[in-house]
Amino acid sequence: MGIGRFLFSINKNRTRVGTPEDRGRVVRFHPTPNQAAGAYRRIVPGIIAGAADLDPAAALTATVAGAGFGLSVAWVVLLCFPIVQSVLGVSARIGHETRLGLVSLIRMHFGKTAAYTIAAMVVAVNILMIVADLMAVSDALSILVQQAAMYFPAVVGFTVWYILNRVGYDKVTTTLSAIALFLLAYVLAAALATPSAIELAKGIFAPKFSGQPGYIMAVIAVFGSLLTPDVIVWQTSTKRESGATFHNEESRFGCAVAVFISLSAIIAASHMHVADPSSMTARQAAEALSPIGVLGPPLFALGIIGSGLVALPILVSSLCFSIAEAAGWKYGLSKAPWEARGFFVLICFILVFAVLVNYIGINTVRTLYWSQVLAGLFIVPILFFILWLSNDRRIMHTVNTKWDNFWLGGAVGGMIVANLVFLWSSVL
User: Fold this and answer.
1) Cα angle: 229, vertex 375, 58; to 5 degrees
2) To 10 degrees, what angle do helices 296-327 and 229-241 make?
3) Which residues in 201-272 belong to E strands, given as ranges?
4) 74: closest CA among 223, 290, 272, 224?
5) How far apart are CA 170 and CA 55, in angstroms?
6) Tens-place pLDDT, residues 330-354
7) CA 70, CA 12: separation in Å to the nearest integer?
8) Cβ(177)–Cβ(314) under 8 Å?
């Protein structure tokens, strides 16, 4: 089965899958040598989710945090790995088993007010990220072709619209994900910028914590950049449309790639020592790859272009998924435009709005950074609903493992504390 059918084929009857014997246990995949090609096709969706996590917002947020606070924020990325893996796996399982999106489930079990609130949070974060990611891709094209960035927002916006409405996201995702992997240049830059393995280990595992608002904000932003609400909505909503068997391995490889490159970006930028990193431009952020030499800026630009064109369709779609689910519209990327007119009109409206905002002249990096801070603040109630729904046997065939509950519960508690400390320190 091709990746397109795997991601977007519709289960027409929307009945529950599995047997009574499946209750209480997690479905796992054990490949044999003869299943190598099939295993690859199963892992690709995980790479897609990882690439979405590694959008320009994530890459630039890690760069900003590293430039401002050095290795003292690197521990957040390591802590995020098991959390992100659990959240992506659990949210995908929710969508697969219930055949419903996250907002639809919240609307059904917690009421319209809760659904509208979560949808509003996703919309707020996604709007900021769509605008800023579109800016980032335009800036990256400007770096690559040495032309003014103002020429590219409309081109990028049309490209995203064409992917979603005409080409089909599944047909171009593999190519775009491959381009996004140019961000692996951060790994080389990190290796060249690190003075010694001992100093690196000391900076990561014995960090200098700070109670300053800027540091707490950087912690929240890094966490939010790796676990944005749009990825969770995307996982549940696309699995709702998928008739294939769910495999938890899908999320693991993507998580590892996203976390590894994010950590490398922090390490590579730690030598910059910028006083006000949130005021950086995309060209200044590209200097994190200066240890590589003249190849640094073009590799940075290619990575941002690839990751942005992977992430933007997901951001736009998950925003429209949230609104459609909250309003009870027909929706889905597998549907023809005339079957879900409101959904596809909304896609067009969001992209036109994002392109127009790009001509106002706001700072790309600052907008991206604040979008991730907002994502870190809003992720708490979304994780709470994920934790509740995934453990309700009236909704799910299989409930969470104890480790899934440990990491999800820890993420909720930890982010509540971080958000309260940030708000308290900002006020005082």
Assistant:
1) 90
2) 60
3) none
4) 223
5) 17
6) 776 667 677 777 888 888 898 999 8
7) 51
8) no
Q: Are 418 and 221 in contact (CB under 8 A)?
A: no
CB atoms within 10 A of CB 171: 12
CB neighbours of residue 105 within 10 Å:
23
What are the boundaries of each domain within the chain? 36-427
Q: Give me the torsion for CA of 412, 415, 421, 422, rounded to 10°.
A: -140
pTM of the model: 0.72
SS3 136: helix
Q: What is the signed CA dihedral for 86, 92, 93, 97, rounded to 10 degrees?
A: 170
* Tokens describing residue 368: 């991206």
Residue 314 has phi, psi (to 5 degrees) of -70, -40
Angle at 89 between CA 107 and CA 16, to 5 degrees: 55
Architecture of the domain delimited by 36-427? Up-down Bundle (1.20)
Other beta carbons within 10 Å of 204: 18
Is residue 410 packed enough to be buried (19+ CB in 10 Å), middle (13-18) or exposed (0-12)?
Answer: middle
| Measured distance CA(128)–CA(130) in Å, rounded | 6
Q: Is 425 helix (H, G, I), strand (E, B) or coil?
A: helix
Q: Which of 339, 309, 343 is nearest to 323 (CA)?
A: 343
Residue 182 CB neighbour total at 10 angstroms: 18
Write the pLDDT tens digit of every residue in 162-209. Answer: 887 776 656 656 666 666 667 778 888 888 877 778 888 888 888 887
CA distance 59 to 53: 9
Tell me the one-letter amino acid at 209: F
Q: Which amino acid is at 238?
A: T
DSSP 277-333: GGG--HHHHGGGGGGG-TTHHHHHHHHHHHHHHHHHHHHHHHHHHHHHHHHT----T
First-to-last C-alpha distance (Å) of the chain: 57
Using pLDDT thresholds of 50, 70 and 90, give the confidence band for residue 25: very low
Q: What angle do CA 375, 282, 85 make, to 5 degrees?
A: 35
Q: What is the pLDDT of residues 102-161, one digit of tens each?
A: 888 888 888 888 888 888 888 888 888 888 888 888 888 988 888 888 888 899 889 888
DSSP annotation of 275 reads S
Q: Please state, in angstroms and rounded to a whole number, the distance separating the CA atoms of residues 135 and 158.
A: 14
Given pLDDT bands bounded at 50, 70 and 90, which one contains residue 27? very low
How many angstroms separate the CA atoms of 265 and 189, rounded? 8
Spatial separation of the C-alpha atoms in residues 307 and 271, rounded to whole Å: 24
| Spatial separation of the C-alpha atoms in residues 203 and 197, rounded to whole Å | 10
